[in-house]
Amino acid sequence: MFQKILIANRGEIALRIERACRELGIATVAVYSDADRAALHVLEADEAFRLGPAPAAESYLRGDLILDIARQTGAQAIHPGYGFLSENAGFAEACEKAGIKFIGPTSQAMRILGSKTSARQAADRAAMPRTPGSTRGLESIEEAYAVAEEIRYPVMLKAAAGGGGKGMRAVMRKEDLKGAFESAQSEAERAFGSSEVYLEKLIEQPRHIEIQLLADEHGNCVYLGERECSVQRRHQKVIEEAPSAVVGPALRQRMGEAAVRLAQAAGYTNAGTVEFLLDSEQNFYFLEVNTRLQVEHPVTELVTGLDLVHLQLHIAAGEPLPFTQQEVQLRGHAIECRVYAEDPDNGFFPSPGRITRLLQPGGPGIREDSGIYEGWVVPMDYDPMLSKLIAYAPTRELAIARLLRAIDEYVVGGIRTNLGLFRRILNDAGFRNAEIDTGYLDRLLSQATAAEEGNSEDVAALAAAIFGHHRATPTLAPIQPPESGWKHIARREGLRG
Amino acid sequence: MFQKILIANRGEIALRIERACRELGIATVAVYSDADRAALHVLEADEAFRLGPAPAAESYLRGDLILDIARQTGAQAIHPGYGFLSENAGFAEACEKAGIKFIGPTSQAMRILGSKTSARQAADRAAMPRTPGSTRGLESIEEAYAVAEEIRYPVMLKAAAGGGGKGMRAVMRKEDLKGAFESAQSEAERAFGSSEVYLEKLIEQPRHIEIQLLADEHGNCVYLGERECSVQRRHQKVIEEAPSAVVGPALRQRMGEAAVRLAQAAGYTNAGTVEFLLDSEQNFYFLEVNTRLQVEHPVTELVTGLDLVHLQLHIAAGEPLPFTQQEVQLRGHAIECRVYAEDPDNGFFPSPGRITRLLQPGGPGIREDSGIYEGWVVPMDYDPMLSKLIAYAPTRELAIARLLRAIDEYVVGGIRTNLGLFRRILNDAGFRNAEIDTGYLDRLLSQATAAEEGNSEDVAALAAAIFGHHRATPTLAPIQPPESGWKHIARREGLRG
Amino acid sequence: MKLQLEMAGGLRTIELERGEDPHQYRATVDGLEVAVEAHLLRPGVLSLIIDNRAYRAVLEDHAEEPTVHLGGQRHTYRIADPRSLKGRRAHAQGSDGPRPIKASMPGRVVRVLAQRGDTVEANQGVVVIEAMKMQNELKSPKAGVVAEVRVVAGGTVAAGDVLAVVE
Amino acid sequence: MKLQLEMAGGLRTIELERGEDPHQYRATVDGLEVAVEAHLLRPGVLSLIIDNRAYRAVLEDHAEEPTVHLGGQRHTYRIADPRSLKGRRAHAQGSDGPRPIKASMPGRVVRVLAQRGDTVEANQGVVVIEAMKMQNELKSPKAGVVAEVRVVAGGTVAAGDVLAVVE
C-alpha cells in the first residue's frame, strides 16, 4: 500500500478521501487555492500546498503544479476525486510518465470510454444495448438530417466530450435540427474545447440508472448494484438512491453483466460507473461511462457495506479485489441529497457567502459528507455543493422518513440552501411512489407549491424577540475565557497585531 | 401505531428514541429534571414536562408523576430507555393498570427474568447451560458453605437484584466466604433494597457474549446475533462489538436458539438481551437477562441494518415481526466506545461541568449517539456517559482503524473524557488480536503507559501563543450580528433584563 | 420591551417582560398573553417551552434578513421601529424615482447589457453575474432609463452592491 | 510578543511577530525560528501550516488549565509571567505551610472523615465527594494537622473549592 498520496481536489470529496487514507495509515498531501486556505480539507491533511489564485484554471486544474508537488513530497499516487482533473486523460498520462500512480483507470482506458462517441463504439463491440444513433461525431448538418431521419424524431444532440448538460439539445422536429446543431456545436466548443456532437434517439421519460463497477489490475471486475438518479434538474443529479425501486434481481444482473463486459473490453481498472437510460418497458440503453469516483458513491457504500475509496486505493496499489461478485451483498435502502448553496425560491441563484449558523444532523442511519463549518465562507468560485446528506434504512419508505427527520435537524444560516426543495420532493406522492423519470423534477417545479401551515409564525416572532432581548441585555454567563494573562501580556508588549 | 408516546429518560437514549419517533410520525413527550432543562432531549421533543429537582429519586424515578403526565398528554405508550424505570416491574405493572403501553416486556415476564435467581430457574426449565451454583437466594452462611463446597472454589457471590457490579464478590478460598457474604448482602440491601444473594461457580477469564432478542406479541421470537462486551472496568462495559471475533455460525446458532427458548418459556416480548459467559473451550453459561433496550444496541443495528427502536415501537403496537430468523443478515463489523466524562489519568474521577469546546467526528461509517453540545453543562447527578461513538466497516480491523480516525477528530474541551483510554485500547496488540476477556482491561490498566511521542509540544506551544495573540488583538472580522435596532429599542425601553 | 416585527404574515406586536426566574417571560403576541420559558443553549439556539410545547428556534445572523428557523421553516423578519415604520413602507413600495439593481449574491460581472442612457423595460436584463459556475441575469425592477452603471465586465461584486440605477 | 509557557516538557519561550499578511507569523520557539501560517477557523480552532505541514489545534477554554488539543494529544500549559514565575513555582512546590484540599470536580459531600485538629497522614482520606453515581475520597496532600474543614456532609461543592486545609 502507498505510504503517502496527494489529493488533487477540494471540499467534501477531499475530506472524504483524507479520512479513508487516515484509516489505512496513508499520509495525505492536500492542495488548495487562495479561496480555500481555511477549508477543512486543508485542516485535516498531513501536508498542505498552495496552488494559486481562486479560479480553478489557476489552481485545481494546474496539473503541472500538482505533479511537481507530488514529486517534491514523495507522494506515490494522486487521487483526483471527481470533477477538476479526474477525467483528464492528459493528466492521467502525465502521472503515468512521472511514475506517480493515478488513482483511476489508465489514460488509455479513459480515452476509450471518456469520449461519448468512442464509448458508444466500445458498447457496440461489447454487444451492449445503446440508444439508436451515431457512434461518431457528425461531420455536417446533412449527416445529421440523415441520421435523424433514420432513427426518427425526437432526437438528442450531444457533445462527445460532454457532461452536465452542456452541448445537449433535444430536437422534436426536423425544422429545429439545424439551429440546435449549430448551437450545440458552439456550446460544446466553448465548454470542452471540442465541437464534436452526435445524434441519438431521444428516449421518452427515461429513468437514469447507473451501475457501479470495480475492476482490479488482475482482470477481475465486479458490479456493486445500481443507483437510480432520475431526480435531475437541467441534467444535474439532485437525489440519488440505491437500489432503484424498479430494478429487480434479473434486470440488475443483466445491466451489471453488460457493464462488466464493456469495462473489460476497454481494459478498464479501478472504480467507474456505466450510466444507462431505462424506458418504461424496462429496456436499458447505454448512455456513457464516468471514469472516476462519483458524487453519489455513498449510497452504494451504504447498501453494500463496502468503502469504495479504500477499495480504489487497494486496487491502485496493485492488490486484487478482496471479494467476488457472489460475495457482494445488497441490503437495505440509501438515499442521498445534494445540498447546494442556492436559492430554489429565486431561480436557483447561487448563494455563496459566510455560514453564520450551522446545526448538522446525526443519529442512526444518517451520514453527512461535508466540508463546511460554522463561520466558513463558501467561495463563489466553485461548484455550490455544501454537503451530501445520506440516509440508510431497511426500506425505501424508512429511508425517506429518516432523511426528512435529518433535514428537520439541519440548519444552515447566512446563505440559502436547497434543503426546502428536498423536503418538498421527499413529501411528494410521486417521489414516494417512485414514479420518477428524468423529467420528474422539472414537472414538480412547474407546479405551484402548497401553502405552508403558518401558525408557527407567532412562535417565531416570540423567538425573534427573545433573541433580541438576549442580545440587548446579555444575562447568561458566557463561557469564560481562560484568565491566562493574555491581555496583561499584550498590553505590556504594546502589541497591536 | 401510536400517535404519541412519552419518553421516560434523558440524555442520548431519549434523543435516539425521539429520532425514531419522528421517523415513524409519532409525537413525543419529554420529561426532564431541573438539571436537564437545557438538554437536547427537551429541545427536540414535541412536548416537555418538568418532573422535579435534579436527583433521580425526585425526577426520573418518579413513576407516579410520569404516568400522570402520560395520562394528561394522551400519550398511548411509555418508552423507558435503559436505567431509571426500565427494569422496574412495579412501574411496568402500573402502566398496564393505567392502560398505557409500557414499551418492553410485560411486568410478569420482567419479574420472571429480572431477578437473577428466578432467571436461573427459568434457564433450567429452558434447558439452557448456566454456571453451576444456586438458583435461589442463600438463606444462611451454612448454605453458602455447602453450595461452595459442591461447586468448588473459586466462586462468585452475586445479588439477585444486581447490576453494575454492586453486591458482587469473587471468593477464592473458604476463609474469605463469610466476610464476602456479609458485605455482599449489605451492599445489595443498600443498592437494591433486597439483600438476596446467591452463589455461582467463578468462570475464569470468561468472555462476555450476549444475544439480542426481539419477540413480538404473537409468539414470534428472533435472535439478531451476538455482541461481545468483554472490555469492562469494574463490571461496567467500556467497549462493545458485533460480531464477536470468536463466535462462529454454529456457536451463534446454539446460543441464539437457547436465548430464544428462554424468552419463549418466560412469555417475553419486545427487545431483550440474554447475557452469557463464554469460557476458553467455547462453553457458554447463562448469566442474566436485561429486560430492556441496551446501551450497546447500535452495534447490532449496524451489522443487521435494522432499527431496534423502530421495531420496539412496532411490537408494542401489536404488530408482528416483519421478518423471520432466516431473513436476518449479518454483515460487516461494528464497535462502540462509551465516551464518559471521567479522567482515566486520575483514578477515573468523574468530570462533570461545562463543555467549552466540542468537535464531533463524522464521515463514512461513523455514528455518534450523543446528547451533548458545545456550552452544555454535564450535570453531576447522573451517569457520566456523554456519547456513544460507533464505527462500522467491512472487517474488525477496519472498524478499529475507523474508530481511531474518529477519535482523532473528536475534541471535548472543558471536562475530561476517556477518549485517550480508547486510543490506548484500540492500539493495544491484545485487543487487536481479540485476545480479550472480562479481566483484559484491568490487566491493561495495571501496565505502565508507553511514553507518547512528544515532538508536537513545540507546535502546541506555538498554537497556544497564537490563540493568545488572537484573544489579545482580535483582528478577524467576527460574524456581524444583525443591525436590527435591538440596542436602540432596548435603550429606549429602559430594559434591564 | 415592546416591539413590532414585519413578517411574511404581517406586522406582529410583541411585548416581553422577564419574570423573576430569568428564563421565564410573560409575553403578548398581538395582544394575546403567553407564558414562555426560554433557554439560550448556545449563541443563536433557543429552547422554548410554551404551554409544555417544546420548540427549537435557531437565529440566522444576517444583517439584511435576520431569520428564525423553526420546525423546518424559515421566518424572515424586520424590526419595525414604530416611529419610522410608515415612512419606510411608503418608500419601499413606491415605483417612482430611481430604483437600484442590487447584486443578490457575490460574484463576477460577466457582461453589462445596458449602458447609461438606454431605455429598458421592467424585467429586462441589465447585468450578468457569474458565481459557482452559474450565470445569472439581474433585471431592471421597472421600465425607465438607465441612470447609472456602476460595474464593468470582469469586476467583482459583493452581495447587496448596487450594480446600476434605473430612473 | 514574547512569552513563556510552562508545559509538561518544561518551559517554552515563544516569540511571535505578525507579518504583513495577517495570517503569517515569524516565530521562534526556544530560539529556533519558524514561519507559521495560521487561520482561526472559528473560536478555538486554528489551522496551522508550518513548512507545509498542516495541523489542527483546538483550544480548550479552561480557566485553571488552558489546553491545546493537537493530533489527539492534550497539551496543558500555563502562561508564565517572567516576573512572577519564580515565586509561583516555589510556592507550588513547597511542602511547608498550610496546604488546601481542593475538590477536583463538582459534587455533593457524602462524608467528612477528619475533623479540625485531627492528625492525618499524607494521602489519608479527608472528604468523600459523590458525583455521577461515583464516590471519591479526597486525600491529604501531606502529613499534618487538619487546620480547617470548610464543608459539611450533604453540602454541594464546585470544582476547585477548598474543602479543608492541612498544616
UniProtKB/TrEMBL annotation, chains A, B:
Under the heading PROSITE patterns, the entry gives: ATP_GRASP (PS50975), BC (PS50979), CPSASE_1 (PS00866), CPSASE_2 (PS00867)
In its UniProt record, a GO molecular function of this protein is: metal ion binding
Catalytic activity, EC? 6.3.4.14, 6.4.1.2
Q: Which InterPro entries match?
A: Acetyl_CoA_COase_biotin_COase, ATP-grasp, BC-like_N, Biotin_carboxylase_complex, Biotin_carboxylation_dom, Biotin_COase_C, CPAse_ATP-bd, PreATP-grasp_dom_sf
Q: Which GO terms describe its biological process?
A: malonyl-CoA biosynthetic process
Q: What class of enzyme is it?
A: ligase
Q: Which SUPFAM superfamilies match?
A: Glutathione synthetase ATP-binding domain-like, PreATP-grasp domain, Rudiment single hybrid motif
Query: Which SMART domains does this entry report, sorted A to Z?
Result: Biotin_carb_C
Report domain ATP-grasp positions. 120-317
User: This chain belongs to which protein, by name?
Assistant: Acetyl-CoA carboxylase biotin carboxylase subunit
This protein's species is: Silvibacterium bohemicum
Automatic annotation (TrEMBL), chains C, D:
Q: Which InterPro entries match?
A: Biotin_BS (IPR001882), Biotin_Carboxyl_Carrier/Decarb (IPR050709), Biotin_lipoyl (IPR000089), Single_hybrid_motif (IPR011053)
**Leader peptide range in chain numbering:** none
Pfam families, per database record? Biotin_lipoyl (PF00364)
Per UniProt, the keywords (alphabetical) are: Biotin
* Chain ranges of the Lipoyl-binding domain: 98-167
Residue ranges of the region described as Disordered: 84-103
**Name by which UniProt lists this protein:** Biotin carboxyl carrier protein
